[in-house]
Amino acid sequence: MKNIKIASLQLKVLNDKYDNIEKLAELVGDGAAEGADILSLPEMWNCPYQTELFPEYAEPEQGDSWLALSTIARKNCIYVVGGSVPELGEDGRVYNTCYIFDREGRQIGKHRKVHLFDINIHGRQVFRESDTLSGGDSFDTFETEWCTMGINICFDIRFPESARMAALQGAKVIFNPASFNMTTGPAHWEIGFRQRAVENQVYMVGTATAQNPEAGYTGYGHSIITDPWGRVVMQMDEKEGCSICGIDLDYVDEVREKLPLLSARRTDVYDLCYNKPNRR
Fold this sequence. Notes:
The protein is of the alpha/beta class. 24% of the residues lie in helices and 26% in strands. It contains six helices and 15 strands. The radius of gyration is 18 Å and the shape is globular.
């Protein structure tokens, strides 16, 4: 069997960026992810989830938060899927960005959140990421010693194309760091991860921020892993903590052989067209 262990670190975000970086380093240094192959972090783990703060906390690639993640990966010989942080792009725009590192601390992947979280739920839950953030323009995967893996961020999961593009690029595991809230979390968190896992016959990994009722935005918590059959194989509660869960990549092949959804697609009738960005 091709087994790997994923450590989901559900963090309670503090107001000070460097307090968050220090706490992350201390938790990992104290053995929170010991025995795991991959460390997965939440969305915006170094920054309160408030639109007006994203530009203030934003760093260019290879900034302090990036360096902390790279160092943790190298010192602990572990892959790091770095949740997300506010990135100050070379174009001067701010992005919601995930960096991925291998066991030697080298960056092997990057994803900028494509779908920005702009909602107005009956006046009770209003949030507009687009007030300060720009959206990414690619669906991203990265290579590991086991297989291809995919990366989306939070609101991306609501769009089936996001996970399907990763699966069509060969992903067997898709990470979706997130910070669902107390309105959308109870309604759609678990079902969203189960849906995408079933549709694409992959493991879905959702690492969330812990609940902090004193924050301006209260995250739902409940970090989760769902398997290719749509079953929940790990789910945390709302509190800060770390959970290590093993997954069997051979099970992906087994499910796809028994129920060949991806190979049975009628591409003569329909297809998914990826408008790849024209980058210089």
